[in-house]
Amino acid sequence: MFKIILLLSVFFSFTFAQDCVDCHQKESVKCQKSNHYTLQNAINVTRTAWGVKDSNVTLQTIPHSKIDIKKPADLVDDFLRRKCLKCHLGVKNSGEKGMKRKRNCLACHSKHKTKGKCQPKKIAMDKCLSCHNKEFVGTDYKGLFPKDYSHSFRAPLQKNGNYPSQKYGIDFHNLNQDIHYKKGMSCVDCHNNKNGKNWENGVACKECHKDLTKQNHKNYHNNISCSACHSSWNMSSYELSVFRDDMADYDKWKDLTLQEDGYLKKFLTKALKSKKKIKPVMPDWVDMKMKKGIWYSGWRYRRWEDFTLGNDENGMVKILRPIFQYRVSYRDANGTMLLDDVSSVDGKSLEAWSPYSPHTITKKAKSCERCHENNLLLKNSKKPNVIYDLKIPKNIEHGSALSEEQIYRLKSQKYKKERFKMLQ
Amino acid sequence: MRIFQYSIFAALLAIAISLYINVDKPIAIPSQPDQCMSCHENTTNMDVSHPIEVFGCFKCHGGNKFATNKKDAHIGIVLNPSRLEHANRFCGECHSDVVKRVNISMMQTENGILNTLKFQWGELSTPMGYKGIDELQKETNSTISLAENHFRKACASCHINQHEDIFDDEKYARGGGCVDCHRIEKGRTEGKKYIHATLSTKIPSSNCLKCHNRSNRIGLSYFGKYESEGYGTPYKHGEFTNKLDNSRFYYELPADIHHSKAGLDCIDCHTEKGVMGDGKKHHHMEEAEDIKCKDCHKADFKKADSLSVLLSDLNENMPEPNLIAFTKKKNSPIYNLQKNGENSKFYRKRDGKVFNLTKMSNKPYHISKIHERLDCSSCHSSWMPSCYGCHEVYFEDGKQFDWVDRKMTKGAWQEFRSFLRFEKPSLGVGYNKKIMPFAPGCQVIGTTFKDKKVEQFHFMAMAGWDPHTTQKEVRSCVDCHFSPEALGLGRGNLDIKDKKIVFEPFYNSKKSGMPFDYPIDGFVSSEGKQFQSTSRKEARSFNKNELTKIVEAYKCILCHDSYEDKIYKDFTKSKEFFRDGKTPCLK
């Protein structure tokens, strides 16, 4: 059945939404340069983390992995093609509830009936969330934090006795929602092309929030991004072990069939029930072909309350998130471990921390202490331990760690005096 | 009385052994204590205290010691005389006092679990008074309550008198009476020899861990193992790592300093009375438990009694004690902490390795009145296993093993959880009225499928205990005085606005499908309203007054963040100075 859907998808990809392009030629050219079309940021940050030097490819130019696998960099393209790139404008259905979409232009935009009289409909948030869910900005806006994979986390049961409903391949904890969401705003209310800005380049809060006169917006916080203070919680997902297995070895995954991957869930459910040995295959979401091997994954742990800070490329202090402290394994069909839990290459761990803006904005900012007494920033971790150590960034992409001077200032006399006054 | 018996026993034993050794072999009258040895001649001794040459087989195993054929000899024989139904007759002949105590101890009655469980599930009005597992064994099917059903299907698998042979995997087998703890090696045949099971008072911690690895997980935490979210990561050689058993996993966190520095076993601290009972029936573990940190770290040395002489002699790894420490609570001898002149030496029971014990200092943080209500564990615990949300689902139509009746019976349970944490233990007022670490214990959110109806119930409780993750280094002042987790508010944003504590939690329980609207990790509100219950009379969250005081102190801690700071030398005086405007704080 799945093969048929794949074949159909390949067939339809030739009809590149011709009727849109007829009128929207300019937009379609622009779209083809956009990051949503090329996915180059996501692709290159992962390739770099896995040790590819000077990575600069796009969805359209991403190569196939090598046949001879010696290091993680040889396998990263296979990982991207089969786990990450199921979210691109050409993929219609990767098997998860909430992640079905139409293709190309219609992945985001709705069709309008009248030719010529264009009344573009506002892009519904669900369309954005069909890709922007789980670890990245998107579902956090609605206060959603993915639960752990094991079946023992499928709780609480609903009143009718059913397991909690799943969306995007897993079920969620509900945390604080973004204030803009609570007030009824959707993604495109901020992320749009108005006033000559590029909708993909992020939005400055100041565009709307022009009058910042209150006491905390003083000079000394000039270089702090709004979201560093005003985000409520954030995504800290530590150490992702990934394992491509070309052998049919499924039993051990029986409690872990939910790995935020709709295809994998269906495959494992079937394979665990089947009396026949089912060959391990998983689609390549770029060329839409079934290929040998299954990619499994599992975290060390995830937190919503931890955070650390760093500088972005413009010198603004932002929250850093880890992507994803990988540990890579690969077993071929003969049972040879070609990569066995490789977590670093040339002494550099397979990770990329980058500055980001959690979309969990609250009116009331963080208390001063959450940064100024933050043990992760002050490096107060008492006992060196590999588990605590995961919380400290090693490699930062598109930014840098706080300088000694910045860390020193967290506990400066000036801060203490100011804070003391506020507490009286 | 007991000491008397011990001495008599020891004396008789000594005489018996010396007689045996000194007797001229050829004219020994009874060369064997019973006829059993004519068949079982190649059986080894189980330990130094019970040599077969003296005891024979009959004394411990029964049967007919005069018979000369197998059939007659084995009539009434008992394979494991240490099972509690036999122990009084066999072990009790010499150790009657111990057998009596064990029979009403917590590990036998499982009163601690039953009292708490039945109270939390609304079957007892106070968390005490239940008679224990013996009461359960009398039940008929129709009288088994929901909590008792749950106990039978889950908790009761850990019981000192459980039947070892019902465990599929020998590795996880528990029970057997005295041997549950005291056996260090199982009996086995080796060629023509039978190697008798070996018993010891040097109980290896692995025996304790057979049971003490769930619920509050002390046995795991002490060794630096934290039960993880179940990913089995990292994968090595294509397999899961860090397995506890077939479905549970751990990751390594800093182990308790008593383990990491000195490799101490459970029995190096936990006394014979604390473990096997003091002859009284207790409602909860903390009443039965004997040892306190101060018993060693602020020890009072007294003359060793005869029990400590006997026990240290039996241990063989330490000198005969003169001055030793005693527990303050039950006056049990800590015979492995001995004073010799000015030096106090701590002997590890396993092998007699000697350690110099660090005495509790007289620094302000230990003697100042400000922190006199703090249990040692509130500062010295470095992490705490905290399992939020215990979702218990009951299917009446299902079938599951009943560990009390030891057969498959109607009704099956499945357990789920919400999320796990180890960082920043919450604090509250514990069972002893002292401030100590708290974690969920237990947050029961139940669903039952009965008579085609789905019913839900919940009982949310937090519990305080010493997590056994002790370190010399302590949490920083701010880690408690301005930490929402430590205060019991849960995870979220804590601030002070207009002199009031304000707190915005992260977790939205209602939206996450829970049947209550406070955050699942919130023990108490910033207004001091306690959200979640406890299962001890004295235990509670901080109240409004305490919360205010703790956070108020942060104003000083902001600058004076170490006890070395001079303002803590006489804090009352310092506060007066501040009120009178004599300090530079506001300038």
Q: What's the topology here?
A:
The complex is a heterodimer of chains A (424) and B (587).
Chain A (H helix, E strand, L loop, with lengths): L1 H11 L5 H6 L1 H9 L1 H4 L1 H10 L22 H13 L20 H4 L16 H5 L14 E3 L25 E3 L4 H4 L4 H4 L35 H5 L5 E10 L16 H12 L7 E4 L4 E4 L1 E10 L4 E5 L4 E7 L3 E5 L5 E6 L1 E2 L2 E2 L2 E5 L12 H4 L2 H4 L7 H4 L9 E3 L2 H7 L2 H11 L1
Parallel strand pairs in A: 3-9
Antiparallel strand pairs in A: 1-2, 3-6, 4-5, 7-8, 7-14, 8-13, 9-10, 11-12
Chain B lengths: L1 H21 L29 H4 L2 H4 L8 H4 L10 H4 L4 H12 L2 H4 L1 H10 L12 H5 L8 H8 L25 H4 E3 L2 E3 L2 E3 L2 E2 L5 H5 L8 H5 L2 E3 L22 E3 L4 H4 L5 H4 L2 H5 L8 H4 L4 H5 L3 E3 L2 H10 L7 E4 L6 E8 L2 E5 L6 E3 L7 H4 L8 H5 L5 E17 L4 E15 L4 E4 L5 E16 L2 E12 L12 H5 L2 H4 L4 E6 L2 E6 L38 H14 L13 H9 L8
Parallel strand pairs in B: 12-15
Antiparallel strand pairs in B: 1-4, 2-3, 5-6, 7-8, 8-9, 9-10, 10-11, 12-13, 14-15, 15-16, 17-18
Distance between the termini of chain A: 68 Å
Low-pLDDT regions of chain B = 22-29
Mean pLDDT across the residues of chain A is 90
Number of helices of chain B: 25
- The counted number of beta strands of chain A is 14
Structural class computed from helices and strand pairing of chain A? alpha+beta
- What proportion of the residues of chain A form beta strands (DSSP E)? 15-25%
Number of strands of chain B: 18
Strand order of the largest sheet of chain B: 7-8-9-10-11
Q: What's the story with the biggest beta sheet of chain A?
A: 4 strands, mixed
Characterize the overall form of chain A. Answer: globular
Query: Most extensive chain contact?
Result: A-B, 71 and 66 residues
- Using only CA atoms, what is the Rg of chain B? 28 Å
Helix content of chain B: 25-40%
Number of contiguous helices of chain A: 17
Rg over alpha carbons of chain A: 23 Å
Overall mean pLDDT of chain B stands at: 91
**Spatial strand order of the main sheet of chain A:** 6-3-9-10
Largest sheet of chain B: 5 strands, antiparallel
Structural class of chain B: alpha+beta
Oligomer: heterodimer
